[in-house]
């Protein structure tokens, strides 16, 4: 019997809600640098799964974070790690490469009167140490992107009863994660805001839309599948269930919420309507989706040199901070998924979720 023969009769009770011990099959995606404890706890307190992007935090901070989140919610939440945190060449790239890449942004820096970023040697954060800190702190759920977590970590999660979630952008990636024993696969379509988490083939060759990706992954794996990418309203949530998903993961919709880490300029751009998005490697060194603006065009211009992740991210920081202070949204990478035009201003994530949940039920005739 295929997954399609067993649709979830009650959309609120799925393999995902059962496995994670949550009330609604809705995950707030880890929002990388835009994460906040307030948002994560609010979504978990509502009965979804709040996630917190731990990507660049050191082990001591991750330990403290889990304690703080446990104080803010008694419900399950996830902390997300990047299995691969640097691209080839990050450790050997030096001053010459830095200066070459900086040339692309110098006119924008000058225009803003921003200080010229100086080369600093790259200090890697060790994924294994981060994962160990989360395990020892008793994180309720661990989620991963950019790779297959090592066997010892997955074994340890299983031994300690910590469910795991990992992102796949292709059916091949999903199969690898499933075979490795990951409990939940987040099928991440190319509509999604933020980075494309591809790890088998280059992200540019792994761009599949959610509508196409979800049923392919549902058919390919044993684990429950969560649909991620371009889901910003109740119609799309219902569509994800119709495709065989056991839950949805949304990111962009939470960015305008009170308590998210998005700046005022970013929020204003998201809710202004008429936004369209594009992909670039120029913001961080890895392919990511953001609002189509002048910066995206500048960074996609032919002949631009981009440093390996995460060096490009560090190079761009000063430009972003100065553009933000100068209120120049056209020069800021404003992460957003393709369904950004469907998102609304949101004072309270719980109110947003309540509205979505009611709308899902209404559309299902419940
Ligand atoms: C600003 C931003 C940062 C993100 N950072 C992460 C991250 O660190 N780890 C991760 O697994 N997913 C990350 N994502 C992806 C989300 O978890 C989620 O899968 C995605 O936002 C869903 O697509 P949507 O933006 O169209 O809703 C990020 C998304 C955004 C918008």
Would you write up a description of this structure?
With 366 residues, the protein is of the alpha/beta class. It has helices spanning 15-20, 37-46, 59-72, 95-102, 106-112, 127-137, 151-159, 171-180, 210-220, 234-242, 264-271, 294-299, 311-325, 349-363; strands at 26-28, 50-53, 77-82, 141-145, 164-168, 184-188, 194-195, 225-228, 247-250, 277-280, 288-291. The strands form two sheets. It has an eight-stranded parallel beta sheet. Helix 3 (59-72) links the parallel strand 2 (50-53) and strand 3. Helix 2 (37-46) packs across helix 3 (59-72), helix 2 (37-46) runs parallel beside helix 14 (349-363) and helix 3 runs parallel beside helix 6. The protein starts with 14 loop residues before the first helix and ends with a helix. The mean pLDDT is 96. It binds flavin mononucleotide. Residues 29-32, 34, 53, 55, 80, 145, 167, 188, 191-194, 228-231, 249-253, 335, 337, 339 line the site of flavin mononucleotide.
Amino- and carboxy-terminal Cα gap: 27 Å
**Structural class of the helices, strands and pairings?**
alpha/beta
Bound molecules: flavin mononucleotide
In quaternary terms, these chains amount to single chain
Number of strands: 11
Question: Strand order of the main beta sheet, please?
Answer: 1-9-8-6-5-4-3-2
Low-confidence stretches: none
Strand content: 5-15%
Radius of gyration computed on alpha carbons: 20 Å
Judging from the principal axes of the Cα atoms, what is the shape? Answer: globular
Give the averaged pLDDT, no decimals. Answer: 96
The number of helical elements comes to 14
Helix content: 25-40%
């Amino acid at each position: 019997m295929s997954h399609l023969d067993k649709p979830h009769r009650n959309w609120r009770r799925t393999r995902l809600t059962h496995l994670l011990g949550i009330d609604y099959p809705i995950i707030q995606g880890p929002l990388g640098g835009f994460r906040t404890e307030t948002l994560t706890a609010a979504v978990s307190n509502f009965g979804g799964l709040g996630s917190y992007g731990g990507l660049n935090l050191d082990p001591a901070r991750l330990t403290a974070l889990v304690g703080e989140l446990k104080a803010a919610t008694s419900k399950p939440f996830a902390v997300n790690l990047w299995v691969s945190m640097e691209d080839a060449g990050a450790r050997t790239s030096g001053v010459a490469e830095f200066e070459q890449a900086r040339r692309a942004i110098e006119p924008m820096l000058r225009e803003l009167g921003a200080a010229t970023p100086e080369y600093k040697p790259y200090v890697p954060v060790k994924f294994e140490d981060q994962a160990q800190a989360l395990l020892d702190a008793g994180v309720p759920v661990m989620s991963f992107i950019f790779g297959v977590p090592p066997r010892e970590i997955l074994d340890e999660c299983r031994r300690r009863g910590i469910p795991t979630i990992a992102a796949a952008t292709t059916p091949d990636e999903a199969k690898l994660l499933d075979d490795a024993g990951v409990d939940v696969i987040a099928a991440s379509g190319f509509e999604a805001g933020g980075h494309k988490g591809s790890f088998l083939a280059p992200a540019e060759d792994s761009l599949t839309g959610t509508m196409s990706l979800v049923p392919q992954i549902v058919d390919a794996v044993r684990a429950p599948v969560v649909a991620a990418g371009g889901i910003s309203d109740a119609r799309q949530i219902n569509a994800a269930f119709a495709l065989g998903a056991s839950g949805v993961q949304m990111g962009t919709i939470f960015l305008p919420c009170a308590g998210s880490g998005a700046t005022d300029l970013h929020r204003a751009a998201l809710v202004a309507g008429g936004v369209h998005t594009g992909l670039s490697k120029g913001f961080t060194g890895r392919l990511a989706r953001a609002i189509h603006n002048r910066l995206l065009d500048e960074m996609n211009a032919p002949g631009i040199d981009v440093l390996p992740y995460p060096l490009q991210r560090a190079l761009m920081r000063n430009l972003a901070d100065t553009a933000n202070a100068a209120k120049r949204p056209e020069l800021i990478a404003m992460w957003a998924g393709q369904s950004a035009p469907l998102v609304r201003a949101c004072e309270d994530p719980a109110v947003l979720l309540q509205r979505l949940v009611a709308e899902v039920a209404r559309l299902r005739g419940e």
